[in-house]
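Q: I'm writing a short explainer about UDP-N-acetylmuramoyl-L-alanyl-D-glutamate--2,6-diaminopimelate ligase for a general audience and would like to include a description of its predicted shape. Could you first generate the structure from this sequence?
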Amino acid sequence: MQLNKLLSPVEISEIIGCGDKEITGVTADSRQVRDGYMFVAVPGVSVDGHAYIHKAQESGASVVVCERLPEQISSSVTYVVVPSSAIALGYIASEWWGNPSRELHLVGVTGTNGKTTTATLIYEMARLLGYKAGLLSTVCNYVESTPYHTDHTTPDPLTINEMLRKMADAGCDYCAMEVSSHAAHQHRIAGLHFAGGIFTNLTRDHLDYHKTVEAYLNAKKSFFDNLPATAFALTNADDKVGEVMLQNTEASRHTYSLRSEADFTGRIVEQRLDGTLLSLNGVEVETMFTGKFNAYNLTAVYGAGILLGWERDSVLRAISALVPVAGRFQAFHSPKGVTAIVDYAHTPDAVVNVLQAIREVIGQNGEVITVVGAGGNRDKGKRPIMAREAAARSQRVILTSDNPRFEEPEDILADMEEGLDDEARTRTLHITDRRQAIRTAVALARPGTVILIAGKGHEDYQEVKGVKHHFDDREEVKSAFSENN
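A: Of course. Here's the predicted structure. Afterward I'll give you a sentence or two in plain language.
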């Protein structure tokens, strides 16, 4: 692609060198540079791409996009100086792949909890209604029914646009996409054309990165601030910052709620561990989801469907056919009458939501055993809160290892135990080995007991010292159930 065309949507401060070049590839990773490539030097959290400009040049880069020029200038290289390399990369990636987001109805979902479920259900609903659709999510990316493995909630701009191009070329009409706070802050969604944005909620998370709740909020809000006037912005009116998300958006503004008047209202009529009778704008629909948090997710999905122009009765029929997302309140039942719920809940608020959903079904006297840990090298402040919230809503708690990463599991559990008072400690076990923790919970359970296994959900690995070892909570539960027959 010609350099001038590739740079056409980019804000440029200065160009040094020839502006008439043919570009053979684009990358922000100096290790991937080949002859004729454009290298975009992006400042990162731990690595600054500017430190690798010399390496990119040695590997054959003919164009370098940067925020500041290197000390040594090569006469064979064109330097494009920009205010923000990260923003420039987003627009360049979109241009490189032919602006695929403009060929799709792209809906972004942001918030602390519910992103995966809401995005996945919009994707599933589109397909149930006969449309071709794609999904960009934490669990897996999909182009129609073809899965593509993912390591990040929101990938880098080149990967995003490559996936969107696959969707557009496959004839997809719609794409639902999780938009993480990291991605918004790092401008990984720059250059994308959204048809709509959804805000789920905001609670404590990722403060190891954002440092303050205000910075975390502003990262989420920036997504809505940049939506075009042609898009819709749908926010949770029951969240205390729901309306804040809409303050500066040019998109059409809409709300959903379980508690008050809104454009789209959900009301729980009746719920069980395997489903909920839900009223959506006054029409009752039987769903396969449990819990207030899922009622919020489904109300948002309903609103998105209507705002995308889908016929109301068709949307309601599709919602009744939707099934829970892998690792999100996924229920397993033993022959002895024990139920295990595997859920991705890894924040205090998410743990509270899942346990409240269980309590709403089985009552305050039903026995709940919670198996929970916390990830290493992440926000340490939430660890004692998670343990405290779990203990407040469970008869027994088993603290165990999650993804310790480069921390010692015992240190993480010690941080969690700081949140427990003396009474809660008498009901809490400390079992570092997660497999043994799950088996112990199953051994302790009686008929009617509900076991919550929180934190990892869909993940099929445990990350220890930089190595991912196979581990799947769902497999472990089924194995433990079969051994306790």
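A: For your explainer, you could say: Residues 99-321 form a domain with the UDP-N-acetylmuramoyl-L-alanine:D-glutamate ligase fold (CATH 3.40.1190.10).
Q: Perfect, that's easy to follow.
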